[in-house]
Write a structure and sequence with these properties.
The complex is a heterodimer of chains A (293) and B (687). Chain A folds into two domains: 12-69, no CATH class; 81-288, MetI-like fold (Orthogonal Bundle), CATH 1.10.3720.10. In chain A, helix 1 crosses helix 13 (257-288). With 293 residues, chain A is mainly α. Helices cover 72% and strands 0% of the residues of chain A. Chain B has 687 residues and is mainly α. Chain B has three domains: 2-77 and 222-380, no CATH class; 97-212, Beta-Lactamase, CATH 3.30.450; 464-636, MetI-like (MetI-like fold, Orthogonal Bundle). Chain B has helices spanning 12-18, 20-31, 44-98, 103-115, 156-175, 225-244, 248-303, 336-369, 372-382, 384-411, 433-439, 460-489, 497-509, 512-522, 529-536, 548-576, 580-588, 593-621, 624-631, 642-651, 656-686; strands spanning 122-127, 132-136, 149-150, 184-187, 193-201, 204-212, 445-447, 453-455. In chain B, a hairpin with a 4-residue loop joins strand 1 and strand 2 (132-136). The N and C termini of chain B lie far apart (79 Å). The model of chain B is unreliable at 1-44 (pLDDT under 50). The chains are: A mainly alpha (293), B mainly alpha (687). The interface between A and B is large, with 96 and 99 residues.
């Protein structure tokens, strides 16, 4: 039945490979689900007896909790400050999206529609800035943000940094889309006496809605998933974002794997679905822009 | 006073007469920089431009110079007061030492000393044996707290300070050098200063003398007169000249000359002020020394303390290691040669500063005067809409991306670290030392005592090697697995393809820090699933993070797991865009499957796969989260990649300057990579 009609080559070896790989792929995800629903903090799926048999061992690696319980989810949101961390993440990610997309839209529009001195340089500078190593930026950013602006452990500081660092990618992405919108529309509007601002807000932006939406979602995801900057800038526990908080559960000597697993699932579910929806845009956007880091 | 001399000299006379002119002219000339009116029209606006340039450039530079001068004068004053206090303290310490550091003799010395000090000053002597306050003239130490008494519990900081000084002295003696400060200076809450010195008797530290000085009078500020003079006079001269001269070029020359005169004049004034300060400091300190020497001699006689060895006042003017500064001769006279040297030092500093200011000012002047500003403004106005739309993003990028980048590069030439990060960068400047340290250290491995190779995991080249291995293996795994899966998924009529596709993409969709932490948990030595599997097949669980090879394997597995979907999606996209007719045609021509693959599939994949590989090389090279969260460099930093190593230097060892240099090197590598890659891709496109 799994036989290719035309070639006569059987499909089942392919399915064996695929199933094998799929198991390898989803095992860590099942593992984290198991721990999350196990109701305790251990990273072992099952407790082993003194002299474990092969079956006991097999049980210990089967991603199925011994008892099902929602307690990890409940207590991570109530007993632990995780709800607060999630809130921080939501605020930061939304703020980044709004600010970043606004900045990127206006800049991309100018890059796409106007001819002006510095246009090429500006675009290239945006591209090159993507190569700046994060650690090189981290120290000066820390000095500027924390020591000069006093924005350490503040959501605003993180929003500003995320928004500006997301600009280059968003600008390139949006400019690509703006370039595809025919200029006739604007020329007609100009003839009618519309100002550039009016054209931008009432003609271009509505037409570019899909691209803007995609850019916004990427900005959101980047801010939502960012770890290093947040870990460096947010040193008060109550101002952690979700990634920093999750690491707090299992970093160092802390071994609260149940909280970590439950938190991970809460954090991942929205972005995983977002990602699955967005990935076709991502691939085209990335490969079109060549080197970016 | 020398300070007011330059005001009456030279070209001042005619300048004063013209003074109202530039002031009344300046505002319109500023407006004339507006290109809508200026620029094209010959004559008046252009000559205003030169004047406006001069006003701004000279004003800016002089304001900066004035600020620097005030600060330097203030620093010198503070230094002088410190030295005076120290001279007094050293003289007193000398006497207390002669009184063996304790007892009535010491108390008598202290009370005799107190008489001649300024009101608000106070002295105390601590003896370590018995933790005693031997003598004190501090206002709080009266009544039942009067000396001598045992130190109270809340006075422990005083005793600790004494012990610190003792340790410092002993350390320096042992090392035969001067590494630890043998004096402590502290700013008191009332604005005065407190200085502490150890008391040495027969070569060992037995106590401490502390002196609190009254708050100092604020340092005199350099007057605004010279500033205004050297600003307005050249302006007036230049304005007058530009009425006479009709050629724009000559006007610019005139403005440059005027600028030079103004700045030079103020430089001369600064030089004189500072020289005067330095000389006066010496005089004051020398006078203090003489007074103290007299006073000490008197007290010595009064208290009948041993007069041998003779007092050496020259040694009282000393640095924090109690080494004589040598600015004042032992007899208390100003040493002219040393003083001249010191003045020359200050003067060269002033010359350097003014040189820098001159360059800055000339740039501003010429930019405005030659019409650079006018043209810039013109361009901006002409394209104002474009710039308006760019501005918000550009400002953000400038402040938070480009500025930090260049600041980081500047930082890489300094020795900035946790303890001196508040100092100006010029104070911690070390030139290329960080780079030499990073790139010049080739001791990657050495033979241990048992002949085995011991790797130096902190070495840059080791980390670079590891990073390259890490990148190459990961990209190889990503491409082969991703391409393989894509080829399988692309088989015509494969059942359940969408399901496989979605499930296989999941690792890419998961936030990678979560992935990293999950795998770290699964590689746990005792409870980790991976070790359970090994044990199930009869093996022993491994301590994964105890050896570099296994530790590398954990990171590789994690990164392989999360990076193959990208390659798979890219390859699949490219594969699906190949028209089926091509294969049909190939089959008709009798091509084998392998021939079809190499002649059709691979060339079709190339345009998509090459950028993807280039991209994923950069990603993997910079894959901070996986290394940082999975192996964390364990064991002993052997599995750090360059970016995590740089992070460790910055935020765990707090060597900001070194870390910045490290990161700059990383940037250089990436830049080189992208340049080579650009060259290559252009070559292949052309071919």
């Amino acid at each position: 039945m799994l036989r290719s009609r035309r070639e006569g080559m059987p499909h089942w070896p392919l399915h064996v490979v695929l199933v094998g790989f799929t198991l390898f792929t989803i095992y860590p995800i099942l593992w984290v689900l198991t721990i999350a629903f196990s109701g305790n903090q251990s990273l072992a799926i099952a407790t082993l007896p003194e002299a474990p048999t092969v079956m006991d061992r097999l049980r210990a690696i089967t991603p199925w909790p011994e008892t099902w319980s929602f307690s990890n989810f409940v207590s991570v949101m109530t007993d632990q400050p995780f709800a607060k961390w999630m809130f921080n993440s939501v605020v930061v990610a939304l703020g980044t999206t709004v600010l970043g997309v606004f900045l990127a839209c206006t800049a991309a529009y100018a890059f796409s529609r106007f001819k002006f001195p510095g246009q090429r340089t500006g675009l290239m500078a945006f591209l090159v800035s993507q190569m700046f190593p994060g650690t090189l930026m981290l120290i000066p950013l820390y000095i500027i943000l924390v020591q000069w602006l006093g924005l350490g452990s503040s959501r605003l500081g993180l929003i500003i940094v995320y928004a500006t660092t997301s600009i280059p990618f968003s600008v390139w992405m949006l400019k690509g889309y703006f370039d595809t919108i025919p200029k006739d529309l604007e020329e007609a509007a100009l003839m009618e006496g519309a100002s550039v601002g009016r054209i931008f807000w009432t003609i271009i932006l509505p037409l570019a809605k899909p691209a803007v939406a995609v850019t916004a979602l990427f900005s959101f995801m980047t801010a939502w998933n960012e770890f290093i900057l947040a870990a460096t800038f947010m040193d008060q526990e109550e101002m952690y974002t979700a990634p920093v908080g999750l690491r707090f559960f299992v970093g160092g000597f802390s071994q609260q794997w149940g909280y970590f697993a439950a938190g991970s699932i809460i954090v991942s579910v929205p972005v995983v679905f977002l990602f699955l929806y967005l990935q076709k845009y991502l691939v085209s956007g990335l490969t079109a822009g060549s080197v970016k880091g | 006073m020398s300070a007011s001399d330059p005001q009456q000299t030279g070209d001042g006379r005619e300048g004063v007469a013209d003074r109202p002119l530039p002031e009344s002219e300046a505002p319109p000339s500023l407006h004339s920089a507006d290109p809508r009116k200026g620029g094209q029209a010959p004559g008046a606006p252009r000559h205003m431009r030169v004047l406006a340039g001069l006003v701004l450039a000279l004003g800016l530079v002089l304001a900066l110079a004035h600020g620097l001068l005030s600060r330097t004068v203030e620093d010198l004053t503070v230094q002088r007061e410190d030295r005076r206090a120290l001279v007094s303290l050293h003289a007193l310490t000398d006497l207390v030492e002669r009184a063996e550091g304790s007892g009535d003799a010491a108390r008598a010395v202290v009370s005799a000393w107190q008489d001649q000090m300024r009101a608000g000053s106070a002295v105390r002597v601590i003896a370590f044996s018995g933790i005693k306050l031997e003598a004190s003239t501090f206002p709080e130490d009266v009544g039942d707290k009067a000396a001598p008494r045992r130190l109270a519990r809340e006075e422990k900081p005083i005793y600790d300070r004494g012990q610190r000084l003792r340790t410092a002295v002993e350390t320096n003696q042992e090392e035969g050098g001067a590494r630890k400060a043998e004096l402590e200076t502290e700013l008191l809450s009332n604005g005065g200063r407190q200085v502490s010195a150890p008391v040495e008797v027969d070569g060992s530290v037995v106590g401490m003398v502390e002196m609190a000085t009254a708050p100092q009078a604020p340092a005199p500020k350099p007057g605004l007169g010279p500033l205004l003079l050297w600003w307005l006079v050249p302006l007036a001269a230049c304005a007058g000249a530009s009425f006479v001269v009709r050629k724009q070029g000559l006007r610019v020359v005139a403005s440059v000359v005027a600028f030079a005169v103004g700045l030079g004049g103020y430089a001369a004034y600064s030089l004189r002020t500072l020289e005067h300060e330095v000389r006066e400091s010496q005089e004051v300190v020398a006078a203090q020394l003489r007074t103290m020497a007299e006073r000490a001699a008197t007290v010595l006689a009064e208290q009948q303390l041993p007069a041998e060895p003779a007092l050496r006042p020259g040694h009282w003017d000393a640095d924090e290691f109690r080494r004589p500064l040598g600015l004042v001769s032992p007899a208390g006279e100003v040493d002219a040669a040393v003083l001249a040297e010191r003045v020359e030092e200050v003067a060269s500093g002033v010359r350097r500063t003014f040189g820098g200011l001159a360059v800055l000012g000339l740039a501003v002047l010429l930019f405005i005067g030659m019409g650079g500003l006018a043209r810039t403004v013109e361009t901006v106005v002409e394209h104002r809409q474009a710039y308006l739309y760019i501005a918000p993003a550009m400002v953000g990028m400038l402040v938070l991306v480009f500025f930090p980048f260049f600041y980081g590069i500047t930082l890489s030439f300094t020795d900035s670290n946790l303890y001196n990060s508040s100092q100006p960068l010029s104070d911690t400047w070390v030139g290329l030392r960080n780079y030499v340290e990073i790139l010049g250290d080739f001791t990657i491995a050495k033979r241990g005592s048992d002949g085995a190779l011991v790797f130096n995991y902190l070495n840059f080249y080791y980390t670079l090697f590891f990073t390259v291995v890490w990148t190459v293996t990961n990209v190889a795994i990503g491409v082969s697995v991703g391409l393989g899966l894509a080829l399988i998924l692309n088989v015509q009529g494969l059942a359940m393809r969408p399901v496989y596709r979605v499930l296989l993409i999941l690792p890419w969709a998961m936030p990678n820090y979560i992935t990293a932490l999950i795998w770290k948990g699964m590689f746990h030595q005792q409870f980790g699933v991976v070790n359970h599997v090994i044990r199930m097949f009869g093996g022993q669980g491994l301590a994964w993070f105890d050896s570099p090879a296994t530790s590398f394997l954990t990171a590789l597995t994690t990164n392989g797991w999360l990076s193959f979907p990208f390659m798979m999606v890219v390859s699949l996209g490219a594969l699906q865009s190949i028209p089926a007719e091509l294969y049909e045609a190939a089959r008709v021509d009798g091509a084998s499957r392998w021939q079809q693959f190499t002649a059709i599939t691979l060339p079709a994949l190339k345009p998509a796969l090459v950028p993807a590989v280039i991209l994923s090389v950069v990603w993997t090279f910079n894959m901070f989260n996986i290394i940082f969260l999975v192996t964390d460099g364990e064991p002993g930093g052997s599995t750090e990649i360059l970016v995590t190593q740089a992070y460790k230097y910055a935020f765990q060892r707090y060597r900001y300057g070194y870390a910045a240099a490290y990161s700059t090197v990383i940037f250089g590598i990436l830049l080189l990579y992208s340049m080579v890659q650009n060259r290559l891709s252009r070559a292949t496109e052309a071919a």
